[in-house]
Each structure stands twice: as C-alpha cells, then as structure tokens.
Amino acid sequence: MPPYSTLTHLDCSRDGSRHDADTVQGTSPLGAPLLARYDLQRAADAVTPAGIAGRRPDLWRYHELLPVRDERHVVTLGEGMTPLLDLPRHGARLGVPGLRMKDEGLVPTGAFKARGAAVGVSRAAELGVTGIAMPTNGNAGAAWACYAARAGIDALIAMPVDAPVITRRECVVAGAELYLVDGLIGDAGRIVADAVTRRPGFQDTSTLREPYRLEGKKTMGYEIVEQLGWRCPDVILYPTGGGVGIIAIHKALLEMRELGWITGDLPRLVAVQAAGCAPIVDAFEAGLDESTPPADPRTVAFGITVPKALGDFLVLDAVRSTGGTAVAVTDDDLLAAQGALARDEGTWICPEGAACVAAVGQLRESGWLDGTEDVVVLNTGSGLIYPDTVPVDVPTLPKGARI
User: Fold this and answer.
1) How are the residues of the chain apportioned to helix, strand and coil, as percentages rounded to the nearest 5?
2) What is the pLDDT of residue 107?
3) DSSP letter string over 330-383?
C-alpha cells in the first residue's frame, strides 16, 4: 500500500546534520530551523500530478509530501486550494498585464497562517503533544488556537498589544489561554519560551522553532504551480516578516523540480517588506547573509513587523538563488495599493498583501519587471481582519432624504 507520507528525517538548515523526525523537535543543536525531508523517489512512484487532480480540493491533496504519517491524525478545517485570480484591470494599470493574485484571505481564520497551523497541529498531535505555545503578531496565534481546539489540545498564545483586535477574539472564542504583551513579537517569544519550560507536554511552536509550520505553508507553492497547469510563473512576490512563506515556497519548488513535476528556471522570488521594518531588504542590499534588527520597527502591515527573523539567512538564499530581489514599500504606498486594487478588482486584501501589490508597481517603474512576465502576488489574508486600514467618512441621510 502506498505511504500516506514519505517523510524520512529532518535536516539542520545550517550544517545539514540529520535528525529524527519521529520525536518532538525544536531547532537544531546550532539553534537553526530543522527542515523536513522526504523520499522523493518513493513519492514520485506513489503519485503523479494527474493523480493529484482527482483528490479533494484542500492542501492534504499533497499528503505524500507532508509530514503526517497517518491520515487519522489529520486536523483540518478545509484549508487550501485558494483562488489564483487574474487581475487584468489592475495589472494593466501597473503595466504588468500578466498579474495574478493567490488569495489566502479565503482560508479558515482568514489568513494563510491556517496552512501552517493545520499541518503543525496535526503533526504535534500525532507525536503526542498536549498543548502548543507561541508568540504571534496576531493571525498565526488565531489560526493555531482554532486548530488546537479542533485537535482537542491546549493553546497558550502571547501577542503584542498592538496586534489586530480581531485576532484576540479568534483566540478567545477558540478557548486559548491568551496574554497581551507590552512589546513586540520577540518580547512575547521570550515570555512563551520561559512558560513552556514549566508546562510538560507543551511544545514551543514559534516561527521556525518547530519543523512543520513550514510544510503547511509550502503547499502555496504546490498550488500555484498546479493551478497554472504544472508550470511556474516568472515571478512570485511574498510579504516577508518571519519569512516562513517565502522559504516554504522555495522548498516546494525545489521538491517539485526533483520530483520531475516542473522543469526549467524557478520563479524569481521577491521578499517584500514595509519601509518601517525592512531588515531583510537592508541585508540583501548590503550583500549580507543575515539581518540586523531595525532600531524602531513599525508599520501598519503588522503581520510583517518582525525585527529579526530566525530564518533570515534562508529567506536571503531563496531570493538570491532564484535571481530575485528584496523590496521595501512605505505604509502610504501599500495603503494606496490596497484601495486601488479593491476599486479595480473588488477584492479587499490585507496590508501585507497590499505591500506586494505596491512592490509590483515599484519594480515595473524601476525596470526590474519589463511587463511581459507572469507575476503572482501573495495576498496573505483578508482585509476584514484589519478594518482600521480603511477610514469611513460618509454622510448620514435623514429618513425620506433624496440623493
């Protein structure tokens, strides 16, 4: 009988050392993220793109390339297979007629974080974890709280006081133990790490401090390629905070190439940050392999307010190895892009996704994009999570008024 998963082991992302995938793991002894590895020949023998086409439309259609060994342990709310939307009117306005958007605002909990939560919680539960604990800028904590509830395990969440209010409510309604922290995500992370030491059975599921969040998010890469008929776009832009999404998409592309499912050049990957918190962009432009946290990070795109990403070196490698780039956009520009896209295409996206749309305009103006490319931007969440990004000042009419 074909395997449900072809997971073999974990690799340290720094030195390539091999680690056991069937025990609860955090980072490697070097403090680096662990990356899941698969028997790709066995996977290729077990399933083909044509075989995947007949499966249910969620991310578990790629289960041979995911870490959950037994289908009975899958925790799902129907996540995955989000639309890949053509943006003809807005693309024409930007001078990029081949513009598309992968819209993650339609997954459970309203953001792409549900992908990482689905796979991370499923694997944690399979390995006997009884509670997950994590710092969050909002959306990830909300997603992990909901999936923990679905799995019947506990959730301890800490988020900055400035995180979107709706994400607090998602955590509370799902029964999570929630704390607000007067600081940034790093401050929340230190508090959570300390708490886990006193909670047997809990796992620290902070960004890249467990191996499987990334595996859920890599399915965005698989889906984009499948939705384009098993071919790659020329360019993919991703809003980059902790960097898991862009690292994950790069991992998916490398796996698909080894599987023989794609050929030719990989898409150029673009890491998009806000000008108020752009450590990856600064490191890229300086030719460095690691980033330095900015002194006073702040942006309306709160989900990418990550001063120091644990996997910054992996983001920089993904960008450089594909011939991509890193771009920073101002809050004014991303908010303008959010409104312009909604007026052109009827879709209200999150500010992080809007940063990518703004970056397309910048890259077209600079000539980095010549306008002939197939370009995919990732919208990582619904604009509904961030209602305060759209001020409403409209007249109120008395009864019986005429317009």
Assistant:
1) 40, 15, 40
2) 95
3) -HHHHHHHHHHHHHHHS--B-HHHHHHHHHHHHHHHHTSS-S-S-EEEEE-BBG
